[in-house]
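Could you show me just one protein sequence together with its fold in token form as a worked example?
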Amino acid sequence: MDPVTQGALGAAVALTKARPEQLAGAAVLGALGGMAPDLDVLIRSSADPLLFLEYHRQFTHSLLFIPLGALLCTLVLHGLIGKRFGFRFSLSYVFCFLGYATHGLLDACTTYGTLLFWPLSYERVAWNILSIIDPLVTLPLLAAIVWTVRTRSSAAVLLAVAWFGTYVTFGMVQRDRAEEVAWRLAESRGHTPHRLEAKPSFANLLVFKTVYEADEVFFVDAVHVGWKSKVYVGESVAKLNVSRDLPWLESNSQQAHDVERFRWFSNDYLALDQSDPNRVIDMRYSLLPNDINALWSIQLEPPASAERHVMYQMHRGDSRAALPTLWAMMTGADID
């Protein structure tokens, strides 16, 4: 989730356990604790472009790391903030702990993948029930935090936390509805999916990107799930087969190893870019939910050497041009 939402949820949860005279300090410590796990983005290397993919949402986001992560936050923040509000170290720890504890769980609600159970498991947990950015999550939390700190009444923040829980539950319902539509769509095409997922599109829970794999091919569509469901038919592309698609790639080369690292990161939703035979894309993300134009990829460069890494690339595209189409999908309108 975006840093503002992470901080807002951390602050809101911390405020639910604060006394009236503690509210301002609790909000600050909870917010900073809620954002702290994303400091793992600093773990990166100019020589290895994929290193940050392995460590972002890794150990700092694990449920088992919460007590230690909260302690590290408190060691830094108590002297800077906690003491200024008259808190004991133990109280600063409580508020940092409550904020820190929300982070991994909130990230797992999105589609990116979070190592919640590291080091017991390296599975990337993604419940696909919230978009990475969603104002219906963030704005009520921010408004409730301001109101609670100004009025010294916790009623607003309790309502905001209850709203968050309700909205997450709604996301689960919407995801399941979208998956049901996608299963029916696959059956109508004569396909028996090997796997199928529905992921919320940008900033809403009305339109989901559905991806299913059948016969080594990915099929991408968008599904509007309002009062009635509507399918926006998308595209298909063959699943990456290294021996077929990258015959020049030596199996013991660094680039071959990087492809497998990228496969783990993307949960094996990999395909070859149709416009570049040496680019491998992550099928899970695109500007429009019925597109296969990926937001990020890795670029390979033949010949494969023992040391050369792949290049990691971001593809922003024209987001302004995509927004009217996404809005039309959200309203259930027909599109060209």
Observations:
- The mean pLDDT is 95.
